[in-house]
Amino acid sequence: MIGNLINETGCHTYLVNGVEDHVHCLFGLKPSVALADVMKSVKAKSSKWVNESGKLQNRFEWQVGCGAFSYSHSHLDRVYRYIQNQEIHHQKETFREEYIRMLESFGVDYEAQYLFQDLIAHEV
Fold first, then answer.
1. How far apart are CA 4 and CA 89, in angstroms?
2. Domain span at residue 67?
3. Where residue 19 sits, what CATH number does that domain have?
4. What pTM did the predictor assign?
5. Per-residue model confidence as pLDDT tens for the chain (124 residues)
6. How many domains does the chain fold into?
């Protein structure tokens, strides 16, 4: 479903996979489309569908932000396998640990107090 929503924006989905607390989407971003617009559309349409389907007892909402990392075409196979094996991967490393590791490996400056604010606020 999420892959189809990405494709509706003119982008090309390679793979969507996730676990209980996050989803990874590997797709080719169409140059004329802003990433923020893709994610806004996907989040809005998918949460609407989940909430109208009655599959959950509580209202479903995505977190406010998202993370995006770009890769060269030559790395698609490696990233594809990484996303495909999320359940196995997250037996060894939590989503939070993974996300911080990725920010650091990509040289992205961040302030730890602002990471996962939505998750913390909803857990309290």
1. 25
2. 2-123
3. 3.30.70
4. 0.79
5. 899 999 999 999 999 998 888 899 999 999 999 999 999 999 999 999 999 998 888 998 888 878 888 889 999 999 999 999 988 888 888 888 888 888 899 898 988 877 775 544 444 3
6. 1
